[in-house]
# Entry
Amino acid sequence: MGEEMNKDVGSATSRVVTIDGPAGSGKSSAARELSSRLGWDYVTTGAIYRTLGLLFVESGEDYKNEDAADRLVSFLTENYGQDPRSGRVALGDRNVTQDIRSPQISEMASIVAQNEYIRRKLLPVQRKVVLSCQGAVVDGRDMGTVVFPEAPLKVFLSATAEERARRRAEELLEKGSRVSVEALVREIHERDERDANRSCAPMKPAEDAVLIDSTKLSLDEVIEQIIGLCSQRGLIPVSEKT
Ligand code: DC
# Structure
C-alpha cells in the first residue's frame, strides 16, 4: 500500500461510517438503512470475501496457494461489482447475489478470510470500492480496526448467538425453509470462533468504536442510536437532521 493510497484513504474516510460485528448481528440491515437515510452508498465487504469464496469453490483451487489467490483476486478486482443501493453483487455479467449466500459459501468465505495473504490482497479492493463513493456506510469484521481506522464513526454491533440464530431462522422461514435454531446456534458459534480468533485482523471492536448490543433492540432503535451518533459527529448537515 503506497503513501498516496493512504493519503487518499485518510481524506476520503471523512464520509465513512463503519459497522462491524458478527454474523446475524443486524449490521447489514442497519448499514443499508443508515446509508439510505444519509443519502450515502452501502458497501458490504462480506460480499467481497463471499465472492472470492465462490471463485475458490467453483475453480477447485486451493486457497492456501498464493498463485491461485493472485489469479482469483485479480479476476475479482476486474469483474466485481456491488450495487450501492440494492446490494446486488455481480461478477462481470453474472449476478451472484444469491449464489454467495449459500451455507457452503458462507463457510468458505470465513475460511478464506483467515488467510493473511488473501486479506492483504483484498485490502485495496475494499478501499477502492469505498473510495469511489461520495459517502459510504460499510459493514464487515475489521472495517474499524484495519480497513478504515480513520473513519469518524465506528460502530460494533453485537447480539447474543441465540438471538442471531432466531433472527436467521425467521428470515429463512420467510423464504420457505424451516431450520432448527439449535443447529443455527452451533453454526454461528463456529463462524464466530473462526472470525474472532484468527491471527490476522480478527473480528473485534476498534478501541474507539461505539458498542451497540442489539439483542433487545428493533432495527429502528439501532438506527436511531447510530443517527444520533452521526449527528453528534457532524456527519449530518443541520438542515438534514430529522
Ligand atoms: O458479513 P458476512 O457474513 O457476509 O461475511 C462473510 C465472511 O467473510 C465472514 O464469516 C468473515 C469474512 N469477512 C471478514 O473476514 N472480514 C470482513 N471485513 C468481512 C467479512
Observations:
- The longest strand covers residues 153-158.
